[in-house]
């Protein structure tokens, strides 16, 4: 059986396409209608500014005031009359003679000047000196170490014998062991000089200096064959009884 209509004349065949196109047109018209704006013509200012005319500013004429110069200063006062008094005393002028010599002046030859050497006081500690000072009675000791030991022993014996041990009790010092640090120097002639002491009481220091002053003259110490000053120190220790 043959169909009655031509398939190409069927309108429903492109209905979806027509619907989409119509929908797009409606959306476009709706969007333009929403965004459409109108303005009130009465609020628009149509005035114009003409800048062709030049502005002429009138500058006021000022008058320059001339200040008169200050009056001149008054003339200086006339000086007082100064009397010139002649000096009766005559002043002798100092004549400075020239130090330059003339060609004909003979030049005196200067003899050789002898320069005397000044010996410096050199101090060498007792522990490192090459030749220790020799205490009387220690001459026969052999070697530097033996002479040092002999001297220390002789000094200790003299201090123990001459020092007044009862002095500490008389001063009212507390019982116990007391120390007095004594120092002195043996000069280049072997004499004991510059005696110093430091102890618990000035009276003990004075007694220690007195005892050290009793040391005899010694043979001076030597360093590299020359007599030098040798410092020496020792502690004096004693017990104070109740």
TrEMBL record:
| Residues spanning the membrane | 16-34
Residues annotated as domain TonB C-terminal: 180-239
**This protein's UniProt keywords:** Membrane, Transmembrane, Transmembrane helix
**InterPro entries from the xrefs?**
TonB_C
**KW rRNA processing (keyword) present:** no
Q: Which residues form the signal peptide?
A: none
User: What is the recorded name of this protein?
Assistant: Energy transducer TonB
């Amino acid at each position: 059986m043959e169909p009655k209509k031509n398939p190409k004349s069927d309108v429903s065949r492109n209905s979806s396409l027509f619907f989409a196109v119509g929908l797009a047109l409606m959306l476009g018209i709706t969007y333009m209608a929403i965004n459409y704006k109108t303005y009130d013509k009465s609020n628009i200012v149509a005035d114009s500014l003409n800048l062709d005319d030049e502005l002429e500013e009138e500058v006021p004429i000022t008058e320059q005031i001339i200040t008169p110069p200050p009056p001149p200063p008054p003339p200086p006062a006339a000086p007082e009359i100064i009397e010139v008094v002649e000096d009766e005393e005559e002043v002798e002028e100092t004549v400075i003679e020239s130090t330059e010599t003339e060609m004909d002046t003979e030049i005196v030859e200067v003899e050789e000047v002898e320069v005397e050497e000044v010996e410096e006081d050199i101090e060498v500690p007792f522990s490192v000196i090459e030749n220790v000072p020799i205490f009387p009675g220690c001459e026969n000791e052999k070697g530097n170490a033996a002479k040092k030991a002999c001297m220390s022993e002789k000094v200790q014996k003299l201090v123990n014998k001459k020092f007044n041990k009862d002095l500490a009790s008389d001063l009212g010092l507390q019982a116990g062991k007391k120390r007095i640090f004594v120092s002195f120097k043996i000069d280049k002639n072997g004499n004991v000089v510059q005696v110093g002491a430091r102890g618990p009481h000035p009276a003990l220091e004075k007694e220690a200096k007195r005892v050290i002053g009793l040391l005899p003259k010694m043979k001076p110490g030597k360093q590299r064959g020359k007599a030098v000053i040798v410092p020496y120190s020792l502690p004096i220790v004693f017990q104070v009884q109740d």
